[in-house]
Amino acid sequence: MTDVAAGLTTTKAPFIEQARCDGRLYIEQPYALYSEENHEAWRRLYARIAPRWRRYAHPRFLEGIDQLAFDPDRIPRLEDVNRFLEPLSGFSARAVSGYVPAYAFFESLRNRAFPTTITIRESTRLDYLPEPDIFHDVAGHVPMHTDRVFADVLVRFGEVARNAAEMTAEITDADVRIHRVESIIKAMARFFWFTVEFGLMHTADGLRVYGSGLLSSFGELEHCIESPDVQRYPFQLEWVVNQYFEIDHYQPLLFIVDSFDHLYGQVDLLDEWVRAGRLDNVSPGEPNVNEADLRSFLDALT
C-alpha cells in the first residue's frame, strides 16, 4: 500500500522508487499523493520567483505562464497543463519516474512529448537541487513550449538525434562508432545546455532569459543578467559544441541568440554538422557520457 503521507518529495518518494523497481519509465501523475508540504514547496517557489520572471524572462515565457493558468498555490495537474498546451503547439508534458536516456529523451521531443518529473524538492531546500523536479520541468520548461517556433526547435532537435543514430549505425568498426556517438552526444548535450536550459535572447526590451535552468532558479535568474561576473557572448556553434559546463554552480559563460528563428537555424546547422562529421571529435570534458545514454543511441534503431 502506498504511503500517502510520504508525499512526492524528490529522492524520498516511495511511489517513484516502486515505479523504477517495476521498470516503469512513463507513468501517471498520482496527484492524490502530493502532501501539503509538497504544495507548500510549490507555493513558496512560485511566489518568490514570479516578480523576477516579470523583470527578466522572455515575453513569450510570460505569455506561456498566462496561457497555462498555473495555480500559484498548488502543484499543477499535468492533464490540466496539457489541456491548455496541446492546442497551442501540439506538445504535452509526459510524466516519468526518473532519468530518461539521451536518445529516448530526444525521441520524445521529436514526438512533441516532454518527459516531466513529478516529484518536488523539499520546502526547506528551495535553492539548488541537482535532480530535476516538477517546478523546474513544468514552471521552467513548459511555458516556453506554448511558443510554436520554440516547440518546433525541440522537435527539430529530436530529428537531429535520429539522423545521428542513423548515420552512426552504418559504421562497422565498433570502437570508431562508440567514439563518434559519444562525441555527438556530448555536442548535443552542450547545445541543449546553452540554449534550452541556459539560453539568453535579445529582445526589444534588452537581454531576456528563455532557458529553463535559469527561469526556474530564483538566484541565477537575476545573476545571469545583472552580474558582471557572467560572460555573455553571441551564439557561435563551433564554440558551443566544444564548451564544457559544470552543473553545480552559477554559470560563468552564457550564449545569446537573436530570436527563436535564429535558434531554429542553429539547430538546422547542427544537423548539417552531424551529417558532415563535424561533431565526431569535439573537445573533451563535461558532460560525461554515461552508459545509459551511449547505449540508447547505439540501440536506437534495433
Question: What is this structure, in a nutshell?
Answer:
The chain has 302 residues and is of the alpha/beta class. It has helices at 14-21, 36-56, 59-68, 78-89, 102-110, 134-141, 148-168, 174-197, 212-215, 218-226, 237-240, 260-276, 291-298, and strands at residues 92-96, 113-117, 200-203, 206-209, 231-234, 253-257.
In DSSP terms, counting alpha (H) and pi (I) runs of 4 or more, how many helices?
13
Portion of residues in beta strands equals: 5-15%
CATH level-two architecture: Orthogonal Bundle
Q: CATH fold name, please?
A: Phenylalanine Hydroxylase
Written description of the protein model:
By secondary structure, this protein is an alpha/beta fold. It has a single domain, classed as Phenylalanine Hydroxylase. It is 51% helix and 9% strand. The chain contains 13 helices and 6 strands.
SSE order and pairing:
Elements: H1 14-21, H2 36-56, H3 59-68, H4 78-89, E1 92-96, H5 102-110, E2 113-117, H6 134-141, H7 148-168, H8 174-197, E3 200-203, E4 206-209, H9 212-215, H10 218-226, E5 231-234, H11 237-240, E6 253-257, H12 260-276, H13 291-298
Parallel strand pairs: 1-2, 3-6, 5-6
Antiparallel strand pairs: 3-4
Helix pairs in contact: 2-10, 5-7, 7-8, 7-12, 8-13
